[in-house]
Amino acid sequence: MKEANDLHMETRLLHDGMAQDPLQGAMVHPLFMTTAFGYGDPEDIEATFAGRDAGYLYTRIQNPTIADFERRVAASEGGVGAVATASGMAAISTAILTLCEQGDEVVAARTIFGGTYSLLGRTLSRYGIKTAFVDPLDIEMIRNAITDRTRVVFIETTGNPRLDVPDISAVAETAHEKGAVLVVDNTLTTPFLVRPGEWGADVVVHSASKFLSGHGTAIGGVIVDTGLFDWGAGRHPLLAQYHAKFRKFAFLAALRGQVHRDLGGCISPFNAFLIASGLDCLSVRMERHCENALAMSAFLEKHPAVESVRYPGLESHEGHVLAGRQLGGRYGAILAIRLGSRERCFRFLKGLKRIKSVPNLGDVRTLAIHPASTICRDVVGADRDAMGAWDDVVRISVGLEHIDDIKQDMEEGLEIAD
Ligand SMILES: *Cc1c(COP(=O)(O)O)cnc(C)c1O
Known about the structure:
16 helices; 418 residues; binds pyridoxal-5'-phosphate; seven-stranded mixed sheet; 40% helix; alpha/beta; five-stranded mixed sheet
C-alpha cells in the first residue's frame, strides 16, 4: 500500500509536478511543437543518446510539453513516473507488451472497455499472449485463472456499461500471491476519485481522452508506475534486465527506452498541452459530474418508464458500500438504464434534444449511447451480457449542464419511448 499524500487532491492537481518555465517564467508550461532538439557538439548529443546527460532528442521519445503532462499525472496518482501515449489504447497495449512476452498470460475483467477486450482477446492472442476473462468481483475465479505464466491482472476501477466496482485491494493481493502485476485502468474515476496505488495497484493506465482532458478535444493516454512492484523479482525477464541499471524505474525505462520507442505510439505535444490544461479544472468538473450523475440516477430510478438503473452511488447497487470507500464518497459520471427493449432505447435516444448519441464519455456535455448496437457490437452472446451490454441498455455519461435541464431532456425522451 502507498501512503496518501497530505495535500488535498484539488491542490495537488494544480500544483504537484508543475515546473516553472525557466526561460520566461510562464505560468503554463509552454507548448514545444517541435519534432527534434539540436545540439552544438557531437559529444553532447552522444552523451544524451547514451543516457549520460538528461536532455531531449526527438519528440517520439520525449518532449518538454509531454514531460510536463507526465509529471503532473504521475504526481496526481502518487506514482514514481509516467509515460504519455497517443491514446488510451496505446497506453494499454504498450504497458501489456512491456510486461508480457510470447507465451505469457493475462487475466482480465470481462467487463472492461470494448477496445481493451478486443486487444487482449483478439489482437494479442495472435502474437501468443493469451487472456483469461473473469468476473472481477469473484476473487476465487481470479485466483483460479492465474497460472505460472500469468504476468498481468487487468481491471478497471468501474466497468461499463455494467458499472461493476472491483475491490482493488483484494484483486491486488490475489495477483501478488503469484507474482503478477496488477494494472488498473482509472479512466472512469480519475485520480480525483481514486488513486489505485493507494489500494495496491502496481501500474495505472488512463485514456486521457476522457475526463483528464475533459473537453472532448484531444486523444491521449498515460501509463503510471505506482512504485509498488519489485521489478527485480525475476518473473519479467525484460524488466529484470532493466532493473539492474534503473532499479525502481525499470518498468518505465524499459517502456520508454524500448517498447514505446519501437512501437511509436507517442502523443502529440499539442494534445499533451490540451490535456494538461484539462487537469487544472479536473476536480471541479468531477465534483459536478458526480453530483449530477447521482441526482440523475435517483431521478431515473424513480421514473416509471425506466426498468432499472445501474449506478454505484445508488443503494440498490451491489457494490455501493465498497465503491463509497474506494472512490471517496463519489461515484463517477457514468450510469446505465434498462428500458425493456432495443426499440424503446432507440425511440428514447431519438427523443433527446440536447443529449447526443456519441461513442465517448467524460465530455463536458451529457452523452448517451446504445452499447449493444455500437461500442459492444463486436462482443457476442454471453460475453456481451457479462459486460452488461444487454439489448435494452442505454449508457449515459452525465455532463456539466444544469441538472434540471438534462432531467427535462430525459423526461421528454422517456415520454417518446412509449
Ligand atoms: C476510452 C477508453 C479507453 C481507450 O482510450 P482511447 O483514448 O479512446 O484509446 C480505455 N479504457 C477505458 C475505460 C475507456 O473508456
